[in-house]
Structure formats: structure tokens, C-alpha cells
TrEMBL record:
<feature type="active site" description="Acyl-ester intermediate">
    <location>
        <position position="22"/>
    </location>
</feature>
<dbReference type="InterPro" id="IPR015956">
    <property type="entry name" value="Peniciliin-bd_prot_C_sf"/>
</dbReference>
<dbReference type="Pfam" id="PF07943">
    <property type="entry name" value="PBP5_C"/>
</dbReference>
<dbReference type="GO" id="GO:0071555">
    <property type="term" value="P:cell wall organization"/>
</dbReference>
<comment type="similarity">
    <text>Belongs to the peptidase S11 family.</text>
</comment>
<keyword id="KW-0645">Protease</keyword>
<comment type="function">
    <text>Removes C-terminal D-alanyl residues from sugar-peptide cell wall precursors.</text>
</comment>
<dbReference type="InterPro" id="IPR012907">
    <property type="entry name" value="Peptidase_S11_C"/>
</dbReference>
<dbReference type="InterPro" id="IPR001967">
    <property type="entry name" value="Peptidase_S11_N"/>
</dbReference>
<dbReference type="GO" id="GO:0006508">
    <property type="term" value="P:proteolysis"/>
</dbReference>
<keyword id="KW-0573">Peptidoglycan synthesis</keyword>
<dbReference type="InterPro" id="IPR012338">
    <property type="entry name" value="Beta-lactam/transpept-like"/>
</dbReference>
<dbReference type="GO" id="GO:0008360">
    <property type="term" value="P:regulation of cell shape"/>
</dbReference>
<feature type="active site">
    <location>
        <position position="87"/>
    </location>
</feature>
<keyword id="KW-0133">Cell shape</keyword>
<feature type="binding site">
    <location>
        <position position="189"/>
    </location>
    <ligand>
        <name>substrate</name>
    </ligand>
</feature>
<dbReference type="Pfam" id="PF00768">
    <property type="entry name" value="Peptidase_S11"/>
</dbReference>
Length: 348
């Protein structure tokens, strides 16, 4: 996914449900960052390590851990660093309990924020990503979540590229091994469970743009690293930028039923920049897809449609399209005219 525009330059099973594993922790830190921005939380606040956090996410659990001491108190900043760098399950639970009182209540906050971001294919039940049949996401949602964190919290993004963290005398490297490979990767999060396999959400600003990539279901840490590296390198080098529509340019029009206007213009979020395989402009075709006719009122900026770009009948990129202007409900004559048109001809 291109970070700036949100357009997808390659996808495979992007909307299939997957077990997010520790990539769930991206939503955990998103909630924490939002609480800090709202003034309800500070990095200097300290949270108590409960027996639940210690047993469920501590050393004896067998999972990734901060090695937090039972009944100790830990600063929020250290907990956040552990969640990001060490993938500490105990740290994630301590944050959830400290902010919301329980993981269940914290999960409600996660899902509320997910809806606000537009992650319609995700549901969260805990702060860690430990297996739960009711916790799921999609590759597209995880990419959008990564994009959200980079865009909304640039002042905190440096935590994702820290090479290591030490706690209780135990030094652990960043679980995202791509950070140290020198290919421009500076985030975001890995994940693994026995059932889900190995996955990661990664980002790089190598080249002239930032990319966000998701891989999942791989068989080992080594394969996860290698496939992530290949995907990001290919995305950065094998595509050229092409801008067919400037910011505000109308890409197409969508039919409106019973509105003050019979159609509404569709525009991108800023300019629409396509990233295409080098030398492939001659193969291009495109469609605009939406469910219509649209019903008023329509507000400027409403997400209406999707631009799909094809090369030799293969989908190579998609980009969201938005209403270019408001379309209020029309008067009685307009609604009656549209009703007769639909009755007589069907909606074309």
C-alpha cells in the first residue's frame, strides 16, 4: 500500500480473515497514543503489574514477555516500548488494565477506534493477540492501521525502529528483524501463533515514497523476513509513479436518486497517483465501482466508490473515490421524476 494515497499496488487475499497474532498490539498502542493525545494519560504515569498480567503474559506463559515483576509498577513509556520492541504480552495486559480496568473493556476501546479508522474487517477481544476465535483482522485492515499510526503519531513512530530494549537485566532485540537490514524499514510489528504462522506489518521510506506491507501465514521467522524484504524491495523498485488525476480533479460521476442534482462528481483524496509496473502504461484500463443509485443527502468527502486500474485484465491497483460536493435531497418534483424514470426504464 502506498502510504500517502492509500492506494494498493499489490494484493492477494487482502480481505480474507486472518488471525492477527501480535500484530494486534498495533491497535493496543494506537489506543494508548490516542489516550495520551487526549490528555487522559501520560508517558510518566505508572501502572501496576497484576497477577493476571504476570501469569498470562509473563515468563511462565511461554510467550513473548517483558519479564515484568509481579506487583511492580512500570511507566507507561516503558510498557509501550516493550509492546512495540519486545512484543511483551505482560506489558500489553498491564496497559489494558491500567487504562480500562480490564482487557475486555479495553478491547471495546480497540474496536471503537477500529470503526473510527475504518477497519471494517477487524474485531479485537484482547490487547495481546493471544489466540481467540473471535479476534480477527485482514491484511488490508492491518496495512491501514499501520498507515494510521505513521500519519497520526509521527512523534512516537521512532519507537518502532529501536533496535533493542532491556528490562530486568534481560536485553531483547526488536522482533522486526527487517529494521536492521539497511533497506529503510523503520516499523512496524511482527506476529506469530502456531495456528496463524508468522506475519508482519512493515513500512519503508526507501526510494521516493513510503510503502506499508503485510505478509502472513508464513512458516518461519526466516521466511517472514525474506518474503517481507522481497515484497518491499519489489514495491520500491519495480513501479513508476503516474499521476492521471490532480487533486480535486473529477474522475467520474455517480448517479443520485432523488437529489438536488442527478449526479455527484467523484474525486480522490488529494491527487491520484498510480504506481504501475515500469513500462506498462500501454496496457491500462480502469473501472469505477459503486453501489447505486446513491440516495441523498450526500456530504462532500463521503467515500462513494473505488477506482480499479487493470493491466491486461489483471487488477494492479485500487484507490478510494469521494463525493466532490454536497447533494441535498431534491424537491418533490425531482424525486417524482426519478421515481418515474426508475419505474419506466430501470436505473441505468
Amino acid at each position: 500500500m502506498d502510504y500517502e494515497s492509500g492506494t494498493v499496488i499489490f494484493q492477494k487475499d487482502a480481505d480474507a480473515r486472518l488471525e492477527p497474532a501480535s500484530m494486534t498490539k498495533l491497535m493496543t498502542v494506537a489506543v494508548v497514543f490516542n489516550e495520551i493525545r487526549a490528555g487522559r494519560l501520560s508517558f510518566d504515569d505508572q501502572f501496576f503489574v497484576s497477577e493476571n498480567a504476570w501469569r498470562t503474559g509473563g515468563a511462565s506463559s511461554g510467550g513473548s514477555t517483558m519479564f515484568a515483576d509481579l506487583n511492580s509498577q512500570i511507566r507507561v513509556e516503558d510498557l509501550v516500548r516493550s509492546v512495540i520492541i519486545q512484543s511483551g504480552n505482560d506489558a500489553a495486559i498491564v496497559l489494558a488494565e491500567g487504562i480500562a480496568g480490564s482487557e475486555g473493556t479495553f478491547a471495546q476501546m480497540m474496536n471503537e477506534l477500529a470503526r473510527q479508522i475504518g477497519l471494517d474487517g477487524s474485531n479485537f477481544t484482547n490487547s495481546t493477540g493471544l489466540p481467540d476465535p473471535n479476534e480477527y483482522s485482514t491484511a488490508r485492515d492491518l496495512a491501514e492501521l499501520g498507515r494510521y499510526l505513521i500519519r497520526e503519531f509521527p512523534e512516537y513512530y521512532h519507537y518502532f525502529s529501536e533496535p533493542e530494549m532491556e528490562w530486568n537485566g534481560i536485553k531483547q532485540p526488536n522482533r522486526n528483524s527487517l529494521v536492521e537490514m539497511g533497506i529503510g524499514v523503520d516499523g512496524l510489528k511482527t506476529g506469530h501463533t502456531e495456528a496463524a504462522g508468522y506475519g508482519s506489518v512493515t513500512s519503508t521510506d526507501q526510494g521516493d515514497r513510503r510503502l506499508v506491507a503485510v505478509v502472513h501465514g508464513l512458516t518461519s521467522m526466516r521466511e517472514r523476513t525474506e518474503e517481507g524484504r522481497k515484497l518491499l524491495t519489489w514495491g520500491a523498485r519495480a513501479f513508476e509513479r503516474f499521476t492521471p488525476y490532480a487533486a480535486g480533479a473529477v474522475v467520474a460521476e455517480a448517479d443520485v436518486y432523488g437529489g438536488e442534482a442527478a449526479k455527484v462528481g467523484l474525486v480522490g483524496q488529494g491527487e491520484i497517483a498510480l504506481y504501475l509496473p515500469r513500462g506498462s502504461r500501454q496496457c491500462l484500463s480502469a473501472t469505477v465501482n459503486y453501489s447505486g443509485p446513491l440516495m441523498p443527502p450526500i456530504a462532500q468527502g463521503d467515500k462513494i466508490a473505488e477506482l480499479r486500474v487493470f493491466c491486461n485484465d489483471q487488477l494492479v491497483q485500487s484507490a478510494p473515490l469521494y463525493a466532490a460536493q454536497d447533494v441535498p435531497q431534491g424537491d418533490l418534483v425531482r424525486r417524482a421524476t426519478d421515481a418515474l424514470k426508475q419505474l419506466a426504464l430501470g436505473w441505468l
